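Changelog note: in this version the structure field was regenerated for every chain. One regenerated record is shown below for reference.
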Amino acid sequence: MTLMESARATAIRPELKDEHAQKFVLTLSCREQAGIVQAVTTFLFERGFNIDEHQQFDDSLRETLHLRTAFSGSPSYTPAMLEEEFGGIAQRFDMKFSFHDQTQQRVLVMVSKFGHCLNDLIFRWRGGSLGGELVLVVSNHETHRAMAEAAGLPFIHVPVTPDTKADAERRLLELVDEYDVDLVVLARYMQVLSNDLCRSLEGRAINIHHSFLPGFKGAKPYHQAHARGVKLIGATAHYVTADLDEGPIIEQEVIRVDHSYGPSALSTVGQDAEALALSRAVRWHCQHRVLLDETSTVVFR
């Protein structure tokens, strides 16, 4: 059965055009093989669900399929129930899969002295366009306490020194558990996380880097960029891994510049790029649009 035929088989039913219907998302990855889409659409059809959005990517190089299907229907189902009933299909195709409902991802933001990304995330959260729910701001400085608290967010100062780094990271993990955090966002948090912490947060921590990766590393990146006469300023949002700034990339943003931009102007443009790339990455992650694929990602925008 082709995708088009499967779509016809799950055409919108009048009884499912209900604004109170529960909405779900299925994401899965597995080896390419015949019958996957038919199995998914039939599973949903037999349970009275309507497909609202379907995207898939067939990676011919790695011979894998990645799929995201948004669907709606009976509120009597839960993700756990769907996962249990889908287990037989998943086993047959050796799938990595998960079901999600409309529950918003709970987001903890970490920040140091640069506040532009935090400010942008707060603005989008309060406007309802972030896709997740900000629940806490953690910082190794007191600089942005007023910004966080003005938005109604708890602000916790966790200072970091070489002697207290391990204690600070333990405190962070305690806060992740205490606030039931789904995603940690490093919004220009200027501390290198330990390998153990990176492993604890694998797949649920996003960092924003002030350039393309690889790029200008070390101090004063915009001064380095100016000295090299760059024509594009970029920023990279990626998952955090133990390999510093080498995690799977979710989004990159570029802004064209020219010889008239000094270091200060480049920094301003760069901050715009950072805020844009980070907010998109957070939104797509919270909407379950990002699927990890070894060292890279598949992003269903």
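Spot check on this record: The two ends are 25 Å apart (CA to CA). The CA atoms of residues 27 and 68 lie 5 Å apart.
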